[in-house]
Amino acid sequence: MDTSARFSTESTLPAPVLIVEDDPLIQNRLERVLVQLGYHSEMLCCAASLAQARQWLEEQPVALALVDLGLPDGNGTALIAELRAADPAMGILVISAWSTEDAIMAALRAGATGYVLKERDDLEVSLSIRSVLRGGAPIDPFIARRVIGELYQAPSASGEPPLSARESEVLTLVAEGLSNREIAERLFISRYTVESHVKHIYRKLAVSSRIRAISEARSRGLLDG
Amino acid sequence: MKSFLPIWLMLWLCVASAGGHAQLRHDVLDCEPQIVSVMAAKSEDATRPVAGWQAVTLPDNWSQRWPGYDGTVWYRIDWQPGCVDADNGDSPVGLVIESIIMAGAVYSEGSLLWRDRHLQEPLSRSWNSPRYWLLPASHLREGRVLWVRVAGVAAQTPGLGRVRLGSPEAMLAVMEQTHWRTRTLPFINLVVSAVLGFLALFIWLAFRSQQVFGWYAVTAFCWVLFGVNTLATQAWPFSDTRMVAQANTLAYLFFIASFCVFSWRLLELRCAVWRELPLLALVTGLAGVIVLLPGWEGLQWAGHLSSLVFLLNGFCITGWALRRREAGPLVVAGFYLLLIAIGVRDVLILTGLLSSDFYLSQYSCLLFMVMAAVFLGLRVAGDARRIERFNQELSVAIEKACDDLSATMSKEHRLALDNTRLQERLQLAHDLHDGLGGQLVRSIMVVEQSDNDLDKSRYLSMLKLLRDDLRQLVDSGASASAAPPQTPVEWLAPLRYRFANLFDALEMSLVWNVPDAWRAQPTAVQCLLLARLVEEALTNIVKHSQARCARVTLQLPDDALLLLRVEDDGVGFDVAAVQGGGLGIGLESMRARTERHGGALTLCSQPGATVLEVRLPLGQS
Fold first, then answer.
1. What pTM, to 2 d.p., does this model score?
2. What range defines the domain where residue B108 resides?
3. With an 8 Å Cβ cutoff, are B505 and A127 in contact?
């Protein structure tokens, strides 16, 4: 029973999970939330600094990462970028405390797939994590508005519009504050399709930020051509 | 007294150019025709007299010989031809008469060579007109006597000017020289004076406060009127010689007076009125004398006094300029002295102490006028330069003032910024005190006043309320200066997203009824308050109501009112009973805040229907 439960858990939940958080209280809280979601404590590994996290990652890759932005030896955004470069498909959640929109946007551009506010109740934190575990990408109205603004500003290499028509529709509804279920009902599609659209949008956001970086670099003469 | 008379005469009549020369030069070559004798005789009936001939020398002034004689005098001039030319024995002879004072007629032997238009009053005026004739050879054979009939008045140095005989070429040259001296130069003098006068007049007309130009014009015009006498050949428009003399003396008087005033104004002497008023009185008196007194005495005395005034003024100005020791006055005084020196020179010529044919006095005024024009021009240029400099200084001053102003303004701006920052800090402190502090105090009192130990959930709910309030404080601090949300949808989107996902997860339904646009825009602070209210109400529903369905309704019934209603179909609660409990802490806090914003919060609950309603007036915070 125990074994089969463990097996089933391991087969459905991405593991191991790396928690990069320097505050032990919050670390414990996240562990508790994850355990409530079905994880065993041995599937979780905690790092209190970027250095510890990188040391851990050298030993074995992780399937899911929860990264705090303000760490004693640096900003978590760098780590997020490294993780995303190593594995384009893994879930990365930003753990943010009173953070500004700009910091969250920077993390999303680096490759994060969602964010959790520390101050929220356990219920909301666990909802965010569950959404990522399901393969979704939680997206906030404020993020949606920023994405709409940024993607339409960014230069498109192929000349195609940066977002498909359906993605634009989803983004607009997100910006109005509708939940994924409501969007699905509104557009007569499944919740999973909605989440898939959101993930595409995130990917484009990361790409567009790279394109922007390249064009910025060209305009400053750092790159040829 | 005798010394003043020639000055006046010189200035007034330029007599010297016509007469006053005491000595006849003996520069005639033996071969030239020569005047043998000159005789004069009075003629009561204007016919050629038979007796009473007296030998005279030319130029002749008969008033010295026959004082007070007005009438006609005949001159007989006998002459002999020069040596006979071997080839051409009968060569013609040139005759020049430099002046006839006043009118006359010239006969060679028996035949009339020439005569003035009027030999009776009003007499023609030949006193400054040299004339030239070619005596034909036929005349020379018949006789060598010239007869000149002269009509004049005693007071005007009547007589005959110099008479010269010689070869036609030599006489033509003498004629041209004399004509240039006696007619052309005075003409140029008057034209230049008139032009300068008109120039000054128009400057004064355009710029009335520059009275010195006005006086310059008056002086120039008086001088022209006075000088016209030298060129006039007829008495017209006057009816006799005395009236001409009256008019001329008046012009001279006015010229002297205006010249004095002009020089005072030019030098900007102080207390000008104390000089000008007496001068005006003197001029009026002299003009009365000239116009009203019969005879010639009054005229002469008025002329002498005018000259005296001129002389005295010259010395006064010189003395004053020497005291001032400034360039301008010294130059003016120098010119004044030059005028006086020229006058003295001409007097000496007139009295025979110097020998010259050329008198400078008639040009001295012109000289002074030109000097004054240069002086005025320099002064105008100086003024223009001063204005230019002033403009420069002004623009520099304006620039500095602008800099100062912008510095002051930027300083004020900085102060305003500092003040705003301070205000924000105060506002934050105020919010902390009113919101978080009040909440904290309330929570402490709840714990203190509870008889038995509170359970964990009560503590938690109190702390979470504090946390949410703090979050709002942070948000409001970040967005205090930001514009309020454009639409209600945009405003509620973050809340809606958060609770929609929460309600989804709990399998509860949440319905939002929100208008698409504001009717009246609430302030950013009001939006934050309302958002906090919705958050608190929905949190309570999630935690306590066990509802299946909740509804958030925003209504804008008119421009000044906002209506927010949060309903649920949960178990409900006893409104009065929860006042002191943990649940009540949040709601009471919300009610207090709503009331601080001028709104009202009502809550009614029964099983299956709990309604929280907020009425918030817009347009005030």
1. 0.51
2. 31-166
3. yes
